[in-house]
Amino acid sequence: MRMIYSIHTMGRVLVLLALVIVSSCTDSTERIVEKTLVLDKNSNVEADTNLAIVDSLYAGIARGDSALVVHLFHSEGRLLGSDPEEDWNLQGIQAYMSERSAKKGAPARIEVVERRVTIRNAYMLVTDRLRISTVSFPFRCITLVDTDEQGRKIHMSEFSALIRNDDLGTLDSLLNQRNGSPVR
User: Fold this and answer.
1) What H or E segment, with its residue span, contains residue 140?
2) CATH architecture assigned to 42-178
3) Chain Cα centroid distance, residue 120
4) What is the pLDDT of residues 121-145, one digit of tens each?
5) Tens-digit pLDDT profile for residues 37-80
6) Taking the CA of residue 175 as centre, how many other CA atoms within 13 Å lie in the half-sphere pointing to its CB?
7) CA–CA separation, 83 vs 59, rounded Å?
8) Which of these, 110, 127, 103, 93, lies nearest to 16 by C-alpha position?
9) Which of 5, 59, 98, 161 has the fewest CB neighbours in a 10 Å radius?
10) CA 92 distance to own-chain centroid
């Protein structure tokens, strides 16, 4: 199956990368330290304190813990989804998480299948391919973490289904029918 990224999502990614590049070039005398890691789900680096903030985000979202999720974000942070209207500031994150918590379903399990981490000075860019127990298709999450006067905080986290949004309902129904599961 071919994965299709929306133009909207790719635009967000390009803006994010431009932000990292521009902000890291503001002081030409500063020494740039960069390292990139590609981790699989069996890697033993998951307990790294740098990555703990991203793993805490997934745990908070899976449990519907809005207080934890909001606490992890910078005061100007954004949580983005696949659709253009899925763009939340801290108040929007709180409202979205409260709405999800009210739906009283089984908590989701979010498993990191593949992780790419780029650390450049105070910035950490984490790109994860995720398996989420409540949906039948893979997701990608890109998270930008920075360390500043607020401490280590998430500036932006963007979740994208690795398929076009128009096809999500159709694909989910087909997969559920094929697996003998009831259609949600």
Assistant:
1) strand 139-148
2) Roll (3.10)
3) 19
4) 888 999 999 999 988 888 999 999 9
5) 665 555 555 446 678 999 999 999 998 889 999 999 999 999 99
6) 13
7) 22
8) 127
9) 98
10) 16
